[in-house]
Amino acid sequence: MQKCVTIPQVKRTCLSYFNINTSVTQMDSPFLDVLFCCKKVIAGMLSLALVAGAVPASVGGFLTGGTAIVASAATEVASGDCGTTGHQTEVTWTLDSDGVLTISGTGPMASYSQKNMPWENYRKDKTPKITKIVVEPGITKIGDYAFYNCTSLNKVTIPNTVTSIGASSFKWCYLLDSVYIPNSVISIYSSAFNGCQNLKTVNFEDRIASSLSIGSGCFVSCNELATITPSGLMYSSGGKTYSLSEDALRSGNITILPNVTLALVPAVEATCKTNGNSAYYEGSNGKYYTLINNEYVEIEPDSWIIPATGHTYDETSPMWTWIRNGDTYDVSVKFKCKNCGDIVTPEETPTLTITENDGIKTFTASVTYNIIEYQSTKNESTSYTITINGNEKQYKYGTQVKAVANVPAGQYFEGWYETGTDNKISGSKTYYFYATRNMNIEPRYSDNIVTAQPVLTMNISDREDIGNGKNKVSFTYDWELPDGYTLEKAAIVRSYEVAEPNISTSDTNVHYTALTNARGTYRINLTMGTVSAAKTLRVCGYIKYKDNNGESHEAYTDVLTSAPLNQ
C-alpha cells in the first residue's frame, strides 16, 4: 500500500504519461517499479518548476519515501443549451470532472420529462456523476424534472433571481441533505423535492412582501426532515393560518406567509451640524432594508447616514461691529452661515491697521477664518455734499439729514426729486435720510391732489480697490410707504451672473433686512474677493408690502450695475 497525495494543478507534462489523475491506493508491483524508477526524474522536473515559479512552494516536500503523486483539476466534461423553446441558447449548462453541474444565462430553464434532460446520463450511470448543482444569478426558473433522480447530488445553490422551482425538479435526489430557498422564489411546484430521503434541513430566507406557494407533495417522503428555518413561519391553507411544521411542509398545498414586517424610517436632510439619512426600513428580524426597483434589498447598519454638511460662508458672511474708542475703534466680527443662519464668533480677534493719506484716515480691520481673509474698512473723514432746494452743505457719512418742503398756498406737495430728473425719492413733506452719497434734491408741487405711492430708491457706490486684488462696494436701499401701508419684507438682491436679478432667480444673493418700518434705509458694504472683483455686479432693491386695503404687492427698483475697475 502506497501513500497518496493530491498536488495543486500543474502543467500536465511528465505526469500525464502515467495517467496519474486519480488517487492511488493500490498498484501492481511491476507498475510500482516503473513509477518509483521515474520518481526521481519527476522530482527533478518539479524542482526546476519550483525554481521557475510554476509550482507553489508548498509542493516542495511531496516526494519522500514511497509517496505517489496525484494531480487534480476540474475540467469540462460536457456542455450545451437548456433554455426554453426559441431561447435555447440564452441558458446553458456545463458539467466538470468533479461532478459540478453549472446552469448559466438569463431567463427560465426548459422543462423536461423523466428522461430527456441533456445531462440525463450523468445522473446516476455515467461518470462523473452529478454531485453538486450551481444555478447562477440570472436564471429565473428551474424547469420541471430538471434534476430528477440525480442520485449522487448532495449540494445545490439557488440564486435570488429564481422565482419558481418546477415540478419534480429535485425528485429522488436521495443524498441531498439541505436546501436554501431565497425569498425571490414565490412558487415551488408539486413533488419538487419528493423522495429526497436524506433531506434534513429546509432553510427559507426571510420573506418580506411576497408569499411562497408550496405545491402538492413537494416534500413528501422526506422522512429525515427535522429542521425548518427560520422558526416561527406561518402558512395559510383553506382560509386559515397555522404554524409551519415538517408535516405541513411534506403535505404541501400551502402558502407560506411573509414573516418580516418593515417600519419605514423617512429620509432626513443633512444640516450644517447634524447628520441626515436616506429612507430605509427596519425589519422585525433585526435587519435593515432599502427599496430598489420595487424590491427590498438588505443593507448594512448605518449605510443610510448622510454626513453633516458643515457651515458655509461667503463674502457676505462676516458681520462687523465698530465701536469708537478715543481716536480709534474696537472692532469685532461674527460669521453667519449662509445655509442655516448660525452665528459663530471666531477665536481670532480682528487686527486693525490705520493709514492716513491726504488727510483721510482709513481704518482696516482684518481677520482670517477658515483659511480665508476677510476685511472691513472705515474712512474717518468721508463726507458728502447734500444740496436741498439749492442750499449746499457738507455732511459726514451716516449723518441724518432733514429736508422740509414749504408747500405754496393753493398747491399740493408732489414729492422730493433728484434735481433735474424724474427720479422721485420721497413723498413726505418732511424727509429724513442719511448722508450716504452726494445728493441734489428739490421739492415739487402740483395744482391737483397727489395720490400717495410707495417710493423706492437704490444707490451703489463706486468700487474701491482695497489691495490684494480685492474690491469694496456699498449698496444703499431706501423705501418709503404711504400712511396705512405695511411693510412685509425688504431686501437687496445682487448677482454676478443674472442681468435682471430677482428673489427667485438662480445664481442670486438675496439680503433681507430685519427692518419692519414703513420708511427705512438698508445699507450693505460688500468686500469682493479676487474672483468676484473681476466680474460685473448687478443689484436692485426688493420690497413686499400691503396697501391700506390689505392687498399684498411686490416691487423692485431699477437694476444698477457695477463694472470691474479694469474695464
Automatic annotation (TrEMBL):
What InterPro entries does the annotation carry?
LRR_5 (IPR026906), LRR_dom_sf (IPR032675), Surface_bspA-like (IPR053139)
Stated name of the protein:
Leucine rich repeat-containing protein
